[in-house]
């Protein structure tokens, strides 16, 4: 019994040490703002204005938070905005795609999307940038396919990973 209890305590300590930190307040605010837009619907500008109806909120996922945060840190370290991991990255292999990064942190996805940005000073500004974008960011934000989200920020770089579990 004593060995079993010792093994349990060691496992609990290792799990506690490896647990990711909670979202920073600015990232929590960004997720709340995204979910507010998802709750009311919005007009996306890609290919002409079209209304995207309300959808369920995104749930915060610790594994996706890790993927997004590490990608933001990799872009910041390299000074490059890219959906593929840039040369100079410190967490993921150079050239890794969003799907590969999400799998690398242990999230098994049936669908994924990634929004990234650089230079926005606040959660409100980066969200507005994604909503106004012509690159599909708004439609990804409003897609009912995605149920989970992870967010990251490092310096001027922002990352949002959205996924549906398998």
From TrEMBL:
Q: What is the residue range of the signal peptide feature?
A: 1-18
Per its UniProt entry, which superkingdom is the organism in?
Bacteria
- Keyword match Transmembrane helix: no
Give a single Pfam family match: CAP
| Protein known as | SCP-like extracellular
PANTHER family per UniProt:
SCP DOMAIN-CONTAINING PROTEIN
List the InterPro entries.
CAP_dom (IPR014044), CAP_sf (IPR035940)
Q: Does the keyword Signal apply?
A: yes
């Amino acid at each position: 019994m004593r060995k079993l209890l010792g093994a349990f305590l060691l496992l609990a300590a290792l799990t506690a040490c490896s647990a990711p930190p909670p979202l920073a307040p600015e990232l929590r605010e960004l997720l709340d703002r995204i979910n507010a837009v998802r709750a009311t619907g919005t007009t996306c500008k890609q290919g002409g204005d079209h209304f995207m109806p309300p959808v369920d909120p995104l749930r915060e996922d610790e594994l996706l938070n890790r993927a997004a945060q590490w990608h933001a840190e990799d872009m910041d370290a390299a000074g490059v905005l890219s959906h593929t991991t840039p040369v100079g990255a410190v967490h993921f292999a150079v050239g890794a795609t969003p799907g590969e990064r999400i799998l690398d942190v242990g999230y098994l996805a049936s669908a994924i999307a990634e929004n990234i940005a650089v230079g926005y000073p606040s959660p409100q500004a980066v969200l507005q940038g994604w909503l106004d974008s012509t690159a599909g960011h708004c439609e990804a934000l409003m897609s009912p396919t995605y149920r989970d989200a992870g967010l990251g920020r490092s310096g001027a770089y922002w990352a949002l990973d959205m996924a549906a579990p398998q």
